[in-house]
Amino acid sequence: MTFSQFYLSENHGFEFAWPSSLQVLSLSHNSLSNNILSHLNDISKLRSLEILDLSWNNLGNNIFSSLNGLPRLKSLDLSYNNLNGSLDISGLSNLTSLKILDFTSNQLVDLIVREGSKNLSRLDILNLDSNMINGSNLQQWLWAFPSIRNLTLRNNQFKGTILDGDWSKLKKLEELDLSGNEFVGKLPSSFFNMTSLLTLNLSNNHFIGNIGPNLASFTSLEYLNFEGNQFEFPISFTQFSNHSNLKFIYGNGNKVILDSHSTMKTWVPKFQLQVLQLSSITEFNSIPLPNFLLYQYNLTYVDFTGCKLRGEFPNWLLENNTKMENLILQNCSFVGNFQLPSHPPLNMATIDVSYNAITGQMLSNNISSIFPNLVHLNMSRNAIHGSIPYELCHLSSLRVLDLSDNELSGEIPNNLSGDGSQLIDLTYLLLGGNSLSGSIPSNLFNLYSIKGLDLSNNNFTGKISNQIKNSSSLIELSMSNNHLEGSIPSEVGELESLTFLDLSQNNFSGCVPSFVNIFPTVIHLGNNKLSCLSKNMFGRNLVLSFPLLTLDLSSNEISNGIHDLIHDLRDTGLKFLLMKGNNFTGNIPKQLCHLTDLDILDLSYNNFIGEIPSCLGKMLFENEDPDGTVFYEAIYGVDRIYNRFGKERENFTSKKRLETYTVSILIYMSGIDLSHNKLNGSIPYELGNLTRIRALNLSNNLLTGKVPATFSNLVQVESLDLSFNMLSGQIPPQLSGLHYLEVFSVAHNNLSGATPEWKGQLSTFDESSYEGNQFLCGPPLPKSCNPSEQAPATLPNGLNNDGDNDIWVDIELMLPNFTASIVPRGIAKKIKRTLLKSLTASVYRTLLLSSHHNSQGNFANLFSRFSCTTKNWHKTLNRILWASRTSPKESTNSTPFRLAFGHDTILLVEIYVQSTIVLRPMEIPTDEYWNMMLDKLVDVDEERMMALEVLLRQKERVTKAYNKKEAEKDEEPGNLDIKAAEMAEVRHRIFLICPWERPKDVGPPPIPLPGPI
């Protein structure tokens, strides 16, 4: 009699008499509690009752007193109730016929076994699944049931090792389930005396040791599950040589070990397996496939993922096992061809041979007749070549087709999705990472069930058809790294289910489409030629739980619309905003500070001006998803059938290099990159409030003022780059307390004073982190802050050949100043060009200036050092530019960008705006390069000329004094370079550094010469 789900309670439901002959009674799924004991007393009068089901109620521990009058009761189900704590089962002592007792899913922590409990000697099945039993009295109450045949203790709180009690007393035990606990260590020796075991489940614990030899005693074993432990398992399987009933082996997640060579010989087993799952790790580069498999003919499921099995692909596995349903040989080391079997396994549902070295042509011919029920075909990460066979369109049950990362070529067959295609259930089509070409067939978007489409990293051309609107079920779309062009269809922004979009690294132009009616989580449109943003790009995500994690518009040509975009992003929960390498101008919008969920902000390589918004320091820039739940659910989805697609990656410059962060790293990453802009003013002290930020890059701007002392609060920062600005003052000594720094640079500023204490993480950085700051001293710089301890100056490698303090000075620095001083401002460009060309021989000479304490200088003509080419001229000039930019100009009271030097001033501006002269100097002939620079020189403003005059007047006295000492020297035209040098004030050593990028090979910091030239 069944009253299941009648919603009975103590107020109703028992207003009738129970039939005295009742044998089966089910009261499950009601609201019964202990208040109905009076009614249960009536149940205790049912002397013939054999099966009583009280599961899914609210019954407590004192229920047993109402059940003693059931002498014939064989099965009692109290699962899913409120039994809790230590349960005294002596109240069941009168149930002498009881064979099945089920306490599943209660809150029991222990069983109390008293003398009367021994009357339960006929108990066959005891189920304590999903309780809170800790095992403190396990052996005490376990021996009370000597006749038990089935014992389930899974999903409890057992910890520690299994005691070596006399497990052999459980001679009748046939099924033992210890899975889902926290057992550790090795199995006790007496454990293997339970010789009647048919089913043994040890999965998901922390057992260790070689399980192979001990399993030999379980000769009756049919089912063995030890997955999710740290067992060692011999690959030979010889421990099962006497087993005749073995059918199921589940060993995923353990370590496969190699037996001795003698045990690897072919042997014929007595058993026929149905399931063999050994997805494991191995400490060997490769191991042989066990030979006993040659004699297995009933296999339905085989999984050797990650076992590094060597040799030719075992096509015989399919030939011998016509009942095969799932063949998973992922990430083994098989080579050779994958061949279709001559005896079709008609029930084959899954073939996964990815991550091997399989070669040859793609499967073709009659694949649909051999695998008519194939659901999942994964042959990715191999070396399969040829074209995609058109026969695939006849696999009517296929849901996942993954041929990515092979060597496939040609075009996508039109019939794959056209008329006659039977791929009506295809859910994922993954063809990325091949050499496929041609246009993307428009009928590909007629696969109405498609959820994931990956065509990335191929050679596709043409446009995306607006027929993409037909793919209304599309969740993930990736076409990155192709040669697609034209505008992105607006229909892409109308795909209601779309969550992952990657169209990066193509040639798309026009505007970014609007996504106002959908709620994607990841959008990658970087590295295209997009030039504008749509109005109202995003709607308010107030319905869906998943935020917009990533918006990547980096490396495009977008110049406006950022204010409207940020306004649209306010309610999206955005975490990563990547706008690097565009043409944005103006101030950084303060509305950015309303994006309170941001973890990464990259606005580098733009043309932003003005000050850094101080409100950025009021944001968190920390990840509030430490377990990655939001990332994994939003990116992979909780209902994905194939989560290999759409592995989220972000590119972000951290630690002075472009890093690619995957999901497992993204959940810990946070950072701000505002480098390579034109930002000015001081660094807001509020940025020191970003205590959880990992990377902060403000380099290559025009920032002034001091390094904020509040930066000592950036306790989680790993990369801090403030280089190539105009910061001044002392570096805050508190920065020595930043313990996680891996990258630190304040190079090429105007900082002064002592460096922070050289300890902790700061002691791991060399002088390159501080170079280009003339007035800095202290470790790791060679300049001591105590003049009496000043170390001798050392020169860059290769410049000091004879032990003297020889300094290389390039004539390119001297020539423009000399020209500007001797030629009136209004002279024609032609005259200047003629003059410069007449000095060509001197321009490409390098002088060796030997500086002595008496200010005497000896010059030597080293014409052979440089050839007369634009390349070497420009490379040498770079050394001059950085010396000019970083040196103090107190004599003219002028900043480096207004310095009264001719050529290098012009080129600094060219560098600043990234002109053709700077970006492509190697493509410009020498004469044309000179002409272009001289044209710039004629247009030098009044301020530069006035500063030049001030400088020259100050130099005049030095020049006259020097000329007296050098009067005896020959005044030939060939020595005009010496005269040019006489007009210049050489204050610093010159080093070869790229003027618009961070220096790659930097020598010691600039050291003043002993005196004037």
From TrEMBL:
PROSITE patterns: LRR (PS51450). The keyword Transmembrane applies. GO terms for cellular component: membrane. It is a single-pass membrane protein. InterPro entries: Leu-rich_rpt, Leu-rich_rpt_typical-subtyp, LRR_dom_sf, RLP_Defense_Trigger. It is found in: Membrane. It holds the Pfam family LRR_8. Its main location: membrane. GO terms for molecular function: kinase activity. Keywords: Glycoprotein, Kinase, Leucine-rich repeat, Membrane, Receptor, Repeat, Signal, Transferase, Transmembrane, Transmembrane helix. Belongs to the RLP family. This is LRR receptor-like kinase. It comes from Medicago truncatula.
